[in-house]
Write the structure tokens for this entry.
Amino acid sequence: MSQALVTANLPLPSVVGSLDAYISAVHRIPVLTSEEEQALSRDYLEEANLASAKKLVMSHLRFVVHVARGYSGYGLQLSDLIQEGNIGLMKAVKRFDPDQGVRLVSFAVHWIRAEMHEFILKNWRIVKVATTKAQRKLFFNLRKSKKRLGWMNAAEVRTVAQDLGVPEATVREMESRLSGRDIGFEPVSDDEDAKPAPAAFLIDEGADPYENVADADDADNQMSTLSSALKNLDERSRKIIQRRWLDDNKATLQDLADEYGVSAERIRQVEANAMKKMRGLFTTAA
């Protein structure tokens, strides 16, 4: 299925707007029989008929809504989950083989969940909680594996690790991440008794007064040296350097060539000689 099929050629009911209206609309779409599904799948597979692919997708949109509702506990918009699931459904339609002897819904559920999982992992927290394969597995299984709301004891950690086939250390790390909460980097309260925000613990590399004075003095010396170097140039060389390097709207070699009635190569030579003289002065000053 091409990207055109995913976007332009498969106009699905829009999730944007009233979510209730969308859900009502997709539930009014008839469910296909096994024979209809087989016929449409073969028509798309053999003839690349996008109309058949559209019917296959449309008839399964209600199932995407059903799967999306199972992930409502992650604090994300149901409409966003449905949109991601619809992408997974369309990918499944592209890859579905009617000769395998299974219904499309059984095949598509893996693609639908994969898209939703990826969306959740990218958006559930500002700081990503699951980066490895083992952590992703834990992310979607740890909540239902916990027997109570508090922290798990050693026996529970061992049981979860064995059930999911991951190290016990990974279980404890994921439990800690899931139990945490996002906090603002910048302070959001003027209350002096409030806990400092993370920004308060950053090191200010420019806070040393001695270094600040030294940097300012060095900058003044460089500007003074540059001014002296420019004064030692002839008027044309000074103007060329000014126009080429110091003005806000810098001139090109051709601009200056046209202005002075010479070739661009001649302007380049004058510029190179002027820069050489200025470098000698900077070296002496250093």
User: Anything to note?
Assistant: The CA atoms of residues 84 and 118 lie 9 Å apart. The chain is about 65% helix and 0% strand. The chain has a mean pLDDT of 75. The longest helix spans residues 209-231.
